[in-house]
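With this grant's support, we have settled on a layout for protein records. One resulting record is reproduced below.
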Amino acid sequence: MGTVSLIGCGALASIFVQNFGKLGNEWKLVSVYGREGKSKSAFEERFGLKVKTDFEDFLACSGEYVVELAGAGAVKETCIPVLKNGKNYVCISIGALADSHSLEQVKAEAELSGAALYVANGAIGGLDFLQTLSFSDYPYSVSIETCKNPKGLEGSPGLHGKLLSKTEREIAFDGTAQEAIKGFPKNVNVAIATQLASESEQIQANLVSEPGRASNEHIIRVRSETLNATLSFESKPDKANPKSSVSAALSVLALLKNLSSPIRYF
């Protein structure tokens, strides 16, 4: 049996715990870390789990895999200490490691401790394909377009206070993945995951606001001399957190299942 600890007690963490039993007896959830507040109280009442608020206390009794479902701030606070403690770190908010300095720090700590950082698919899939692409002898380009309802983009720093149209489709952002994650930190973790998995120095990222849209859509385009591919993913946003997709939490469960399964898919 593998042991898991969870960082986060919000909407995505709730989806994770709600579906955790589907892993059967292969995994056990041993602890949860979060901050004081309404989300913590609601989480504890709903699931009957005690949420630790002292990180050092949490780390001392954490499982062999620590799952992050709490956002970029949590990754910056907890990733390196978890790896330093010899525990594996499963991450969906990979945008926190968009800059090369942070990523190199994580790599160095993982190599020293023997632990690993696992990047879950999150709201997309195909990271295995993008890894395969990185072995190509031919140049290739990768881009990603994300389409969301303006409600899921409101308040993002990249809008600089601008109000998105409630009636017209419009481009909310057009630039690089690194620029996108700075301006829309809760919306485009998938862009950074795509860039890192494809081992591209830089990829183009577009963010489209589409009023009336009931789903989040991510379209990854790969172009090269020997291979063209278009990967399209569409999922419902989480009702409790429209900036995130339900599949983001479920992808972590799929990752854990793959790690413990006698047949593994890459």
User: Anything to note?
Assistant: The mean pLDDT is 95.
